[in-house]
Amino acid sequence: MKQLRSRFRLISLLLVCAFLLAAALCTGTALKAAGISLASLPSLPPLGISSPTPDPSVSPSVSPGGEPTLSPAESDPAGSLPPGTDNTPDPEYNVFGL
Amino acid sequence: MNRKQSSPRFRFAFAALLLSALLFLLPAVRSGDRRLYLLAALVPAFMLLCCTVLARLFSLDRMALTLSLFLCSVGIAAFAPADPDAAVAQALRCIPGMAALLIGAVLMRSLSSSMLSAVSSAFLGLLMLSAKLLVPTFSVPLAEAGLALLLVSVASLLSGRGSGLALIPGFAALILLLTGGEIALAALWGLTFLLLIFAADGRILVILSAFCVTVFLFFGYSRLFPADFKAADTGSLNMLISAGWTGTDILPGELPSAASLFPRLSLHFGLLFAGLTVLLFLPLSLRGIFIATSSRTRFHAVISMGVSLLPALQALAALLSVFGFLPFPGVCFPFLTSSLPDLCAELFMIGMLCGISARNEADLAEDAHLAMLAK
Questions:
Q1: pLDDT digit string (tens) for B44-95?
Q2: Is the pLDDT score of A76 beyond 70?
Q3: In terms of CB atoms within 10 Å, which of A91, B24, B175, B362 comes out highest?
Q4: Distances in whole angstroms, Cα of residue B302 to Cα of each of B193, B199, B275, B366
Q5: For residue B129, what are the CA distances in angstroms to B145, B157, B233, B259?
Q6: pLDDT single digits (tens) B4-54
Q7: Following CA atoms B236, B79, B284, B206 in sequence, which dihedral angle do they give, to the nearest 10 degrees?
Q8: Where does the pLDDT of residue B369 fall: very low under 50, low under 70, confident under 90, or very high at 90 and above?
């Protein structure tokens, strides 16, 4: 009976491994078929930082010349502006009138 | 049983009941169907009745019973969102299944290893397997019930002195299954049989010869009928994945397999829930192996091992077939089937497991009584 029990334990171990392997295989196949690969996971944005979603009701501001206006940071790629000058408060949220 | 031991079991049973009620309540609230509200009340009530009154009356193993009943309720819920009538019919199918479970429990509690039980169960099991060959018009699938009886015969022979005799019913069943075209069941039986020989006999010569015969039979069959070995097409897998991780309300016109409820389940409740449900077969089989290791006799140990291995391997085979890793397209998950004979056979096997567990508990109680008398 001792040998029988030890073999039963070995079989149960094999069964657990088989289940885990099958679960991993099937999850991988389902992810692959859904178009999600493990290599693309690091490129996803981290949790808590939501990607900017443009409001469809608001059209981008266009300059009289027909070109979209750029923010100071965008118009100055070399970074010559002193820090803090590119985030002027929005008048809508400037409750203190600063 | 003290309170510390009973508390996790109570919580587990309560979670199973709550989840099974939610499985019917969500589609009921969405569609407003009265039948689904009725099922949401009756299915957990039936589960509660079985897990308390029947489990106490017949000394059934509560964990195995709760898990198998929960899987049955998932099978009923697979029909609920799209076809409430079929869900009611599936619920009615579970009632004879429950009767089969009780018969299995009572049978195992009173059965012991003998040549008479080995011969009679082998005869009945082989008769069930050959029913399709003897009467071609006979369409009731009795193969799983036959395998349950053959397990009794094989266990009885393996636990006796002439363990080599167990090879005769084992290979006869394998040949009959292959002749009847049941390749998936033949593969499952072959693997279970080999593992039982490894556990109960352990002689290298016997194991190797059994392995060679099994491989030879399958190789010969694959040479003769290569068309029977075909993997599931990618269309069915893509259809399951199209439902997403959380499921969809709309079913496509034709489901991959009529008897299997897994496609319905994954389409309605999503791949995530279906995957977690499949993982429940692991604790069920581990519970069965625990009962096997705590059995007093080799006969009961081998039977409970076989009864635990067969559904676990079937679930594995079904999972791998759905994803196209195995060439068995028609294999169903245990309990997640709309076939009444298969459901009854699977619940009969769980009943056998519960009967052996009851016998173990009775042996322990007798030991404690004897120890008390000796003091």
A1: 999 999 888 888 888 888 899 999 999 999 999 988 888 888 889 999 999 9
A2: no
A3: B24
A4: 10, 8, 29, 22
A5: 9, 19, 29, 19
A6: 556 777 788 888 889 988 988 888 888 888 888 998 999 999 999 988 888
A7: -50
A8: confident
Where does the pLDDT of residue A65 fall: very low under 50, low under 70, confident under 90, or very high at 90 and above?
A: very low
**Mutate which of B245, B267, B293 to test chain A, going by most A C-beta atoms within 10 A?**
B293
Widest pairwise Cα distance in chain A:
91
Sort out which chain A residues have CB atoms less than 8 A from B309's CB and list them: 11, 15
What is the value of ipTM here, to two decimals? 0.86
Whether B202 and A34 lie within 8 Å, measured CB to CB: no
Q: What is the 3-state secondary structure (H, E, C) of B259-318?
A: CECHHHHHHHHHHHHHHHHHHCHHHHHHHHHHHHHCCCCHHHHHHHHHHHHHHHHHHHHH
Q: Across the interface, which of B289, B316, B319 has its CB nearest the CB of A12? A: B289
Question: Looking at beta carbons, which residues of chain B come within 8 Å of A24?
Answer: none
The pLDDT of residue B68 = 93
Name residue B205's amino acid. Answer: L
Whole-number Å distance between alpha carbons of B339 and B158? 31
Residue of B nearest to A35 (CA): B241
Chosen from A6, A9, A11 to mutate, greatest number of chain B CBs within 10 A: A11
